[in-house]
Amino acid sequence: MTLFARSWLYVPAQRERMVARAATCGADAVIFDLEDAVPAAEKGAARELLVSTLAAWPNDGPQAFARINALEGYAEAHADFDAAVRPGLAGLVVPKVEDAVTVKRLCDYLDVWEAARGLPEGSIALVPMIESPRALLLAREIALESPRVVGLAFGGEDYKQVVRAPIAEGTAPAVAYARAALVVAARAADVEAIDGVWTRIDDLDGCTREATEARALGFGGKTAIHPSHIAPIHAAFAPTEAEIAHARAVVEAAAAGEARGEGAVRVDGEMVDPPVVERARALLERAVR
């Protein structure tokens, strides 16, 4: 599947009012959370609500994903597959993926569930969450294990806990390398990199700053825990008017140069060669979505 999602909104799957609003929240993708956001006593109710929600999910709504429980808790994960793998679901977000072997197991399970539900083979995508140093070092292999993997999501809060980052302002240095490395691994595997959540719900300026930084690092989108973060994320990932104008100039100059038999041209004093042109075309494509 083609993945284009700037904003990924987590929605606790047991919260009826939040689930009811998910289709019109404005996010590019919604992640119905069956894991951390759901107390153990409410997981059954969350799964039942997910089943009815996916059955009525609109074709023009956000891409619908479900975050399942980690495979280590097999009984929980099995019940999550039963609830989530059905028409309406675009893919699974999977926490605590530590290696490619886990992806292989996920794909084996999905093969069975897709066949049981009459879904096309390979139709359910996977977004493994990278939440530990070990997973980060193996991120490229995780992404390359299956064509089902369309993105890697950074689990920043779990990563901070593993590397013993202080619970305070200024934890960015603890994750700066991890965020950059995750982008490199994802792009090396030709999948998207998805940044972690901004946890300070009322600090929209902070959300904007972190989302802007994420785009500068090369992330394709960012997860969110509150609908108010969607607009700042979209604004941060949107090309500016100046960027769009420059990209158009690059594409037009390249076309004119090609007609003259030139492999490289100058735009605003900059030498423009094929990689620059491809970046410009990609930016213009994003701008019209």
- Please give the count of helices: 12
Output the strand order for the largest sheet.
1-2-3-4-5-6-7-8
**Element string (H = helix, E = strand):** EHEHEHEHEHHEHHEHEHHEEH
What's the story with the biggest beta sheet?
8 strands, parallel, barrel
Number of domains: 2
Number of strands: 10
Which fold does the CATH topology of the largest domain refer to? TIM Barrel
Determine the N-to-C terminus distance: 16 Å
Helix-strand makeup class: alpha/beta
Overall pLDDT metric: 91
Name of the CATH superfamily of the largest domain:
Phosphoenolpyruvate-binding domains
In the CATH hierarchy, what is the class of the largest domain? Alpha Beta
> Approximately how much beta-strand content do the residues carry?
15-25%
User: What low-confidence regions span 5 or more consecutive residues with pLDDT below 50?
Assistant: none
The coarse overall form would be globular
CATH architecture of the largest domain, please? Alpha-Beta Barrel
DSSP helix fraction: 40-55%
Describe how the helices and strands are arranged.
Elements: E1 7-12, H1 16-21, E2 29-33, H2 43-55, E3 63-67, H3 74-84, E4 91-94, H4 100-117, E5 125-130, H5 133-137, H6 139-144, E6 151-154, H7 156-162, H8 172-188, E7 192-195, H9 204-217, E8 221-224, H10 230-237, H11 241-259, E9 265-267, E10 270-272, H12 274-287
Parallel strand pairs: 1-2, 1-8, 2-3, 3-4, 4-5, 5-6, 6-7, 7-8
Antiparallel strand pairs: 9-10
